[in-house]
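Consider this today:
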Amino acid sequence: MKQVEPWDDAPFRPVRLGPIDCEVQRGGDGTLRMRLKEPLGPYPRRYTERLLHWAEATPDAVFLARRPPA
């Protein structure tokens, strides 16, 4: 019998992920080093850059909110 988890019926939205094809190097001490085969695209240097961008682009959007317990 499958155990039902509380999130099984939760309304999740799909999450877009980037490429996952990577090279793996195994170290003698048990470490794993993983490197994507595709180079990273451009990304902000600081998290606050995206925060400022979206604050200007969508000033009426909710950034943080508390949900009711239900």
